[in-house]
Design goal:
Blueprint lengths: L2 H11 L1 H23 L3 H17 L9 H22 L9 H8 L1 H18 L3 H12 L4 H8 L3 H18 L1 H4 L1
Helix pairs in contact: 1-2, 2-3, 2-4, 3-4, 7-9, 8-9
């Protein structure tokens, strides 16, 4: 019996055991998915807990779901919502003074952060299905077969979506690839 089937059975038989097993199995994955977008571990863990609270509140509506993909999508959405709220509030206050000197000393780190932001933006700009296939393949390290099963599409569609995603990303990030 697969892990997903075991969780579905637990969901039908014992909701508390289901939640415990789901949390133990996927909490690290959810944190990792959020941390890629919100690089602060404490915030990532808080947001991951919120993901599991939402799952608990919606447990009666889950039906037949592939939990790994479902939780990944929920984690990404939670992180993007957090980023969006953070932007609307104006973000953290900018420091003035000695920190400016320190910033010059850490220029390579800033370039890395800019590059990561640019990559994140390029991935976010992909069409929805393309982005989802790309993230599951490259970030969650799922096989094309697993992605096809999770998204209920053919393996050939997964391959075509990846080809499209990679072409669009190469185009969007061409200045970094030269």
């Amino acid at each position: 019996m697969s892990e997903n089937d075991r969780l579905l059975q637990l969901l039908r038989e014992d909701e508390q055991q289901f939640m415990k097993a789901l949390f133990q199995t996927y909490f690290a994955l959810v944190c990792k998915s959020i941390y890629r977008l919100v690089p602060d571990m404490a915030t990532a863990e808080d947001l991951a807990q919120e993901v599991f609270i939402k799952v608990w509140n919606r447990r009666g509506q889950l039906g037949e779901v592939y939990f790994k993909a479902y939780l990944h999508r929920a984690a990404v959405n939670m992180a993007l919502d957090h980023i969006d709220k953070h932007k609307r509030r104006g973000g953290p206050p900018q420091e003035i003074g000695p920190a400016a000197e320190e910033q010059q000393a850490t220029a390579p780190v800033v370039h890395l952060a800019e590059t990561q932001t640019r990559i994140r933006q390029a991935v976010d700009a992909l069409p929805e299905k393309c982005r989802e296939v790309f993230v599951l393949s490259r970030y969650e390290e799922m096989s094309y077969k697993e992605i096809a099963s999770a998204m209920q599409i053919s393996i050939k569609t997964v391959e075509n979506q990846m080809i499209t995603a990679l072409k669009k990303l190469r185009h969007s990030l061409r200045e970094y690839l030269e």
